[in-house]
Amino acid sequence: MVSSFAFFGGCKQQGTPLLVGKEDGNTLIETPSKTADEYTPTENLFAVAGKMRRVNYRAETTGKVTSKVAFIHYEQKMTDVKIQSGGEIYFEARSTSTLVKVGLRAFLSGEKAVTKKAENVAEDRWSTHLSPMSKTEYLEKYGVDPAWLTNYVLNGETVLSGELISSENGVYVCRYTIDPVAGTAAYRVKMKEFGSLNSLPEIKSCTLELSFDSAWTPIYLKAEDKYTISLVGEMNCVSVLTQTFSAIGEDVEIPDAENYRAALK
Fold first, then answer.
1. Is residue 173 one of the residues assigned to a domain?
2. Tag placement on the chain: N or C end, fewer CB within 10 Å?
3. Is residue 4 one of the residues assigned to a domain?
């Protein structure tokens, strides 16, 4: 998982906020000193990111990538599950289309990681082979750190604008524009790996919509990206993914955790 700006009542924001803390390039507000109404939209994004970096939770992502080449309509369906519990992270990703069928499960604890791949995504059949590696090796291969709130690096340079869309009964909805180059360096690596692409995608635009409450508990996070890939020739794509959050701050069980722990390098 930006700017210093007019307060929540304002819309567009420009500038650089007070950096409360940074981790992996992300700006995090872990101990808010104001209310959500007093913070700017982007400061609230940092507060949500700060809160979610440390607590237990479950998140499910669904969506698809669509493209059209000549008379061919291409669609790739995406589903992800992330569980963060007791400082450990479990991540499952599935990506299916007529051209690509990929599934990955990953378990990260401290500076170590272990993964396994799907043998048949459609039949939910997974390999029994576990691949241990360092967290550094995992990030080199898959790009995005599962500990992040989003696929993007979020800081004062990468969040170009933030806007309050609505505020009702203590629930806020904000929209953000992310720098398509600086904010997506890790995400492009992930997209290439999971999309079986010939090269890194060229991202044209990134937009986030975040809903959260006055305690900075996220409800949903919707990301829309427009980009060009090289798969069967050059393809212009639109990706729309929606992540929903649950069990925040609760005890969340990671499936098969003992086997993953035993396999760590």
1. yes
2. C
3. no
* 3-state secondary structure labels for all residues of 220-263: EEEEEEEEEEECCCEEEEEEEEEEEEECCCCCCCCCCHHHHHHH
- Output the CA torsion sign for 121, 240, 229, 90: negative
CA 47 – CA 36 distance, rounded (Å): 9
Q: What is the pTM of this model?
A: 0.88
156, 20 Cβ separation under 8 angstroms: no
What the block records as the tokens of 246 is: 């649950």
Amino acid at 212: F
> For residue 131, what are its two tokens?
């691949």
- pLDDT tens digits, residue range 207-263? 999 999 999 999 999 999 999 987 767 889 999 999 999 999 999 999 999 999 999
Q: Is residue 170 part of a domain?
A: yes
Measured in whole angstroms, the distance separating CA 39 from the mean position of its chain's CA atoms is 23
The values of phi and psi at residue 142, to 5°, are -110, -5
* CA dihedral over 120, 125, 129, 135, signed as positive or negative: positive
* Residue keyed to tokens 């500990």: 147
Separation of first and last alpha carbons in the chain: 26
Residue 240's identity, in one-letter code, is: V
Q: Is residue 3 part of a domain?
A: no
